[in-house]
Structure formats: structure tokens, C-alpha cells
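Supplementary Methods S3. Complex input for the flavin-adenine dinucleotide-bound model.
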Amino acid sequence: MSKDASGHNEGPLVELDFAENDEKPLDRLLEKERSVQENRKTARDYLFEASIISVDCLEGKQEKWATTAEPGTALTKLLLKDRVPYKVGDHIAVVPFGMQFGTHIEGICEALNIDPNAVFIARPGEGRTLEKHMSPLLFEIQYKYTTIKNVLTSVAALGDPLSATACAVLSGYAEDQQEFELLDRASNDADFLANMCKNGGMRWVDLFDSFKSLAGNIPLEIFLMLLPTHHARLYSIASSPKNAKNEIHIIVSRRVMGEAEQRRKGVASDDLSVMPPGSTLQFQVRTCRGFHLPADPRAPIVMVAAGSGLAPFRGFWQERMAAAQSGQPLGPAILLYGCREEPGSLLAKELIMAQACGAVSLVITAVSTRLPKRYIQDYVVENAAALKPILENPKCEVYMCGSTTMVKAVTAVLPPHKQGEAWIQKLQSEGRLHEDVFGGPESNC
Ligand SMILES: Cc1cc2nc3c(=O)[nH]c(=O)nc-3n(C[C@H](O)[C@H](O)[C@H](O)COP(=O)(O)OP(=O)(O)OC[C@H]3O[C@@H](n4cnc5c(N)ncnc54)[C@H](O)[C@@H]3O)c2cc1C
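Predicted complex, serialized as C-alpha cells:
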């Protein structure tokens, strides 16, 4: 093995070793791999397993979700394999599958001239070490028997756009002059690349459709080296362990991006709203330190949510229902909820039960499609007299969950008296203002 002037090894970064036919059956190898992985679980990266119990539609047209980029909101219930110690207000981190890309895998394998089910193992080339920054995907799959189908299904983020670096490398394999020029320019001009991504056709899943001359030309090692890996997405837990001991529920807003033919579905939100019952997934629990119920259940609470920001509050009211059933006295709890459609029967029934036992004292819904169009902040102003005594209680805790825009707009009108800024600062300094913010202005969370 020789080294170049900079001291780098010249040998290949990775060697892919394909099994002979019928050698090393994949199931047995995956099972062995799985047991090794399980033994490696640490407190920090412990992966819990769950299976889908049901996906109920809260908003939108569920019958269209599997096939089209159709918005909507789902209540997804997960059955836990292990006992998961979580508190209401915590999150789960889910690594998606990208189920929507399943139908493209055969085409990608064809373009790579590879049998999707051929078993192989990736090992660093002689004298080389594979580090994460060199290739997150090769780093993740090294020393594990797998197949390209398995890698493309569960490791590679096929929905991610091509990076400038990827364009630079890929341009070297484009036989068509126009394709070469596009990739080459995209690798040098960030605005051009951003524009191409916006116009569509620049996701990894589209690679061989958009750049046909790459088919049959890219070595598999290079393709795998460039592919990005899935990253975890966070979802607020929408259930209480006191209500559903071996279940975790989440509320998922289907993310839809782009216009007309370029309309695309978000990867994880699509998986979690279309996966059939019985499908399994892995997740981590991330505790959300600043977003838990007050230790004293008599402390008044105000919960402000928009869209899937309702999730933690469903956990809150379930927890308070359990407290009420065990005879604990509860303070008042006001829920201000902004949504696109009137809450359907599922949520409406739950809220009636929560109100009947005092777990929630008042529900104010702001339906944005009602005319005249009004948002939660408008209802805060309209209900100022009812909110004032609760907000002025020195034990009152305020919780807001949803988009940055909603939280900003509500914070501006929430203070019960004129010294608004000072009131907000006092609430913050006493740790009584809790925010769980996700999704920017364009988000449909
Ligand atoms: C603390 C926290 C709590 C959360 N809780 C919830 C919750 O309870 N419920 C909920 O529904 N969501 C929640 N979210 C949001 C959730 O984590 C995901 O971000 C959301 O579901 C979208 O993920 P996705 O995989 O569907 O979309 P993605 O596929 O990741 O797409 C999302 C964004 O990525 C970019 N993008 C993706 N593909 C491309 C492309 N090809 N080209 C260019 N850009 C692209 C776009 O900017 C797009 O808007 C939470 C987030 C945080 C941070």
C-alpha cells in the first residue's frame, strides 16, 4: 500500500465483498447482527421497539395519504415492546424508512447493475479506516452483512437532495454533455443548485431519471459513499403512561412541500401516517426538561397549541384524568387550540371526558377555515376576562406548543395587564413559561 504526498493512502476507501449464491443466508446474518446490536445498546442511544397499533385520521382525507402528497393529521398509536420510562411532555426520536421510495428501489438497482438481494459486506480498504465524516452511510453499514435493497430501504435518505460535493463527483461519471454541465455547475454555484432542488428532480431517488447517462457508469462503492443517511425526527408524546401503560401515541402532521407536479411528501411524517398496523419501528426517548406538568396538580395551567402542537397536551389531560380518578384535587386547566378543521369525533369525545372530570376546565378552539378567519391569538384577546384571574395566579404555568409564528403572536397578547413584557419576563425567570416550538412559518406542523 503506497501513500501520496499528503500521507493519504491510495488504496480504495471501501471494498465490497459479495457472498456467493446461497452462501450466508441473509435472515440468519441479520439476526446475528441484530443480537450484536442489542448487546451494544447503551443508556445514551437505547433504541426502543414498537409496532403500529392504529393510525386514526384527525384532519384531512386519509384515503389519499398512501398515494398522494395530501396534507392531514394522524393520531398514531404504538405498542411498546419494552417498558419505556417516559413523562408526559417528552419526545420520541424516530428514524424514518422512506416507505414512499420503495417502488423506486428496483429501478435504482437496475441502473447500478446490481441484484437488489445480493448479500455483501463493506469493509475498509487495506490500511484504511472508514470514519463517519468520510461517508455516513458506509460508516453505518461497514462490517455488516446486508443487501442493496436493505441499505436503500432502511439506511439511505433517498429523499434528500444532491449535495454540491455529490454533484461534483457524479459529474465525472456523466456521459451526456448536458448532464455533465448541469452537475458541474450545480457543484460550483450554490444558488443554481438551490434552484434546481426547488424545481425538483434533484433528490437521490430521482438521480437516474434526471441524469440518465449515469446509469451503468457509477461504481457501486462511489454511489454508496455519496448517499446520505436518514436522520431522526422528533415527535411529542401524546399519551400518558398512566393511561396507556404499554403504548405511546403521537400526533403527526403530514408535511407537504412544493407546488403542483413538484409536490412532495415529508419522509417521516408520511411513514408514520401510512404504515399499516403491525409494522415495526425503532425510536429513542428524548426527555424535554422544560415541558412537564407542575409538581402540584392544583397549580392552574394554560395550554396553547396549534396543529400537531396539541400532542403534549393530550398527554397532559390523560395524566390529569388519571389524577382526578385517584381523587387528587386539580387546579383549572385552559386549552386554546388552533386547527384547520373542527376537531373530529375522536378528539371531541376525549375532550368531553376530560372536561367532565375536571382534567380540562375550558376548551377554546380556533378553526382557521371558519369565516371570518381568526387565529388563537384573536381568541386569547376575546377571552381575556376569563383568562385574567388564572394568568394572575402566582402558581399559574403557561405551556405553548406549535410553530414559532403562533408562539410569538400569542406571547404578544397573553399578558393579563399592561406591563406585558415585565409579566412575560417574570414568568420566564420563575420557570413558569414553557415552550416547545417546532416548524417555521412554512411548516404545517
Ligand atoms: C422538538 C420537536 C418536536 C416535534 N414534534 C412534532 C409533533 O408532535 N408532530 C409533528 O407532526 N411534528 C413534530 N415535529 C416536526 C417533525 O420532527 C418533523 O420535522 C416533521 O414531521 C417533518 O418531517 P418529515 O420527515 O415528514 O419531512 P422531511 O422529509 O424531513 O422534510 C422537511 C423539510 O426538509 C426539507 N426538505 C426535505 N426534502 C427536501 C428536498 N428534496 N429538497 C429540499 N428540501 C427538502 C424541507 O425544508 C422540508 O420542509 C417536531 C419537531 C421538533 C424539533
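The radius of gyration is 25 Å. The pocket of flavin-adenine dinucleotide is lined by residues 91, 96, 159, 161, 197, 203, 233-236, 250-253, 255, 257, 266-269, 308, 311, 436, 438, 445 (CB under 6 Å).
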